[in-house]
């Protein structure tokens, strides 16, 4: 969380905003309600429809053992189904076992290879912003969920959120994926005061306080604090201090500074750079405040404050260094470092990472951080090659229902939770383990959305315990700064269209330009690199991409207005 992402094995990943713009649009106008399935021809139907009961959860009609292969496009996902108490309980209850398939290396390479082969696992979960979503839909490699539900499990329409299915409905009238961690405009009205962002500027508490809690919101203060930290704390347990940490660099840039979609980055949100002006999309990547701060990062490198590590480290290496407390400051998603921060806190609460005011614009406006949006974080699709269509859609219905979400969050009653003081909640010893050692908790209990693929982060508020340190402080810091950017989701062209290829090219251009900008020896060299990037961007078809985005943006506004009535 593009938005890159991001990222997340704990419940903290829940509220990740995935303010990240990418993926395909559903066309203009309002989409059909999920309660009124498309009348289009049914590509899912291959046998006569069995008798179904729209008032009864479909999964209860068949609990014979079955194993589904489920691809997760996140190489960092560490858990196996059936090891912990919660997944064992769900398998015993529904008959469904899961074999997770997780790429060992580059996610895009693995997924593209599978797509090229023409055969996919039963379920596929990936970021909604991934180009592969459109490839699979256009290639007819995944089945329309509305048609599957209509034929095999109409109960789906009782538990699915119409706003979410409407949002993901394509031009053909079908929707193929269902999101997790999704919040509609109605959800903001109902739960908004509880919403938090994943986007934070974190510092090591003991070092920050030893430096006198410097103001790092100005460019001068930012550089002075990094310099003072390196001078006062040159080493951490015999290893060089890393003054500043960022998300990992990839082929389209770096989420901390700017993603390849040219619309969303943490730095831009901290600088409160608008997404639109006068009802039209704004080119955030050329905003003077943003460019000026990029030059500050360049200056930091000139001063020896950007370690080589940040340009080459991937997430596993970064997690190791976070756990060692080697970074002074990080422009980073808090949930991506939650496990390591918990470990640090257990050893010494003063050496934990806390959120503080980070880079700000020259007017000192409050940041506008990405909160949960209608697109959510990931989408889950069912492959045309699925071994049992009926069991697949019934299991999906179960997972998105309140019953399924409660099972995934609280686990089995008497094992991981009980009714205590009239409220269903984690048993004290279970909650204690979750707060102290998330990894051990996942392996033993597997609840609290260890398996987050269809988690509903609003539904779970009724069961979630209050946050505790070190999770609480960064979470609380984002409250009141969190915004919904749903209208900017799904506006980027993807696939093999002219605009889609241009967008991909522009992202790659930025991925190559960003490190050069930060490593430039002077501001004048920076300007030359940035000017060339803009010219190359124009030559790649930037104007066509913007026209596409503008139309998609207008369609999003109409769609949101329709289901917000």
TrEMBL record:
Protein name per Swiss-Prot or TrEMBL: Extracellular solute-binding protein
Protein keywords: Signal
Source organism of this protein record: Paenibacillus hexagrammi
UniProt region (Disordered), positions on chain: 29-57
Signal peptide: 1-22
PROSITE patterns: PROKAR_LIPOPROTEIN (PS51257)
Compositional bias per record (Low complexity), positions renumbered to this chain: 29-54
């Amino acid at each position: 969380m593009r938005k890159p992402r991001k990222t997340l094995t704990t419940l903290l990943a829940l509220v990740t905003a995935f303010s990240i713009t990418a993926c395909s649009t559903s066309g203009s106008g309002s989409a059909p309600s999920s309660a009124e399935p498309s009348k289009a021809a049914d590509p899912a139907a291959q046998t006569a429809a069995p008798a179904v009961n729209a008032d009864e959860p479909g999964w209860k009609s068949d609990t014979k053992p079955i194993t589904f292969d489920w691809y997760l496009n996140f190489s960092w996902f560490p858990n196996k189904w059936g090891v912990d108490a919660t997944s064992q309980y769900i398998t015993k209850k529904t008959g469904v076992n899961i074999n997770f398939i997780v790429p060992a290396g580059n996610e895009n390479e693995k997924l593209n290879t599978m797509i090229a082969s023409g055969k996919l696992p039963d379920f596929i979960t990936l970021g909604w912003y991934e180009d592969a979503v459109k490839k699979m839909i256009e290639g007819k490699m995944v089945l329309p969920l509305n048609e599957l539900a209509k034929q095999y499990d109409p109960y789906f329409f009782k538990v699915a959120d119409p706003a979410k299915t409407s949002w993901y409905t394509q031009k053909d009238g079908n929707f193929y994926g269902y999101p997790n961690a999704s919040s509609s405009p109605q959800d903001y009205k109902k739960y908004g005061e509880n919403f938090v962002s994943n986007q934070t500027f974190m510092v090591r508490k003991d070092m920050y306080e030893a430096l006198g809690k410097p103001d790092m919101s100005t460019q001068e203060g930012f550089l002075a604090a990094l310099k003072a930290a390196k001078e006062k704390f040159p080493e951490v347990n015999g290893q060089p201090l890393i003054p500043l940490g960022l998300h990992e660099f990839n082929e389209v840039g770096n989420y901390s500074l700017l993603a390849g979609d040219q619309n969303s980055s943490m730095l831009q949100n901290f600088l409160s750079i608008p997404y639109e002006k006068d009802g039209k999309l704004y080119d955030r990547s050329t905003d003077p405040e943003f460019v000026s701060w990029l030059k500050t990062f360049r200056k930091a490198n000139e001063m020896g404050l950007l370690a080589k590590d940040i340009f080459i480290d991937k997430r596993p290496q970064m997690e190791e260094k976070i756990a060692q407390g080697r970074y002074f400051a990080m422009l980073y998603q808090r949930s991506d470092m939650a496990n390591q921060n918990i470990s640090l806190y257990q050893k010494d609460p003063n050496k934990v990472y806390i959120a503080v005011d980070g880079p700000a614009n020259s007017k000192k406006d409050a940041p506008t951080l990405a909160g949960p949006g209608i697109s959510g974080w990931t989408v889950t699709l069912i492959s045309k090659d699925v071994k049992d269509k009926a069991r697949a859609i019934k299991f999906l219905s179960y997972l998105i229902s309140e019953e399924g979400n409660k099972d995934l969050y609280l686990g089995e009653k008497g094992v991981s939770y009980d009714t205590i003081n009239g409220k269903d909640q984690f048993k004290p010893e279970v909650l204690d383990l979750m707060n102290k050692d998330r990894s051990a908790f996942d392996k033993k209990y597997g609840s609290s959305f260890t398996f987050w693929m269809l988690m509903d982060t609003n539904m779970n508020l009724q069961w979630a315990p209050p946050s505790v340190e070190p999770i609480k402080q960064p979470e609380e810091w984002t409250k009141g700064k969190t915004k919904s950017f749903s209208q900017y989701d799904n506006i980027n062209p993807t696939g093999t269209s002219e605009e889609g290829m241009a967008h991909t090219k522009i992202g790659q251009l930025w991925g190559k330009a960003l490190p050069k900008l930060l490593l430039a020896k002077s501001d004048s060299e920076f300007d030359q690199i940035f000017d060339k990037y803009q010219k190359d961007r124009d030559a790649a078809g930037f104007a066509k991409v913007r026209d596409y985005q503008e139309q998609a943006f207008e369609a999003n506004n109409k769609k949101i207005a329709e289901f917000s009535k």
